[in-house]
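Here we describe the complex-level prediction in full. Unlike the single-chain runs in Section 2.1, the two entities below were treated as one system.
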Amino acid sequence: GPKVLQIPSHQIIDMGQMVTLNCDPVSNHLYFYWYKQILGQQMEFLVNFYNGKVMEKSKLFKDQFSVERPDGSYFTLKIQPTALEDSAVYFCASSLVGLANTGQLYFGEGSKLTVL
Amino acid sequence: AQKVTQTQTSISVMEKTTVTMDCVYETQDSSYFLFWYKQTASGEIVFLIRQDSYKKENATVGHYSLNFQKPKSSIGLIITATQIEDSAVYFCAMREDNAGAKLTFGGGTRLTVRP
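The structure predicted for the assembly as a whole is:
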């Protein structure tokens, strides 16, 4: 089936550093999402993105977080500066259209971020 | 605001039996979609099945089926003839009937299928 690719699969950084998580969504998809999951717990919505703009963001999407997709390349989540509580697995997802088809989100395999 | 609740944190069943996982949701929307995903041991998140709020008939895909009780805001997942490889964490989720709307997940139910 359609694949969402995430790079890197695992990143270890020191607190205060910047990190960029990259997502290559399914090629014809239009909506992009980031979710955060701590220790196999609940999947928490961070942000969704369409046509170059943030549609909605949650309270977890702190000021230190930003997303972009320059020129149709990777959809990225940047955290600057990182904090210890940012340690989690970040999942990227994409979908084609919210209505009229399945509305299904396709998820990547996650990027595990460890902040020391 | 949307909310999805899975009260069962873990379930253990014998292989080849039927298991039901519970999920209740809260929404102000009259039209919405309900999903079940599973997360494997490797962390992969796999879509299983979907129910549209305006459809009365319960969705069925392979050995997955849903028990949709709209008046109770409930969407249970039924797995028949369970297999060892069904062992995973199962997440219930919902989304509004708007383009690009986010998925709101429940806390998950860990299913262990024993031989």
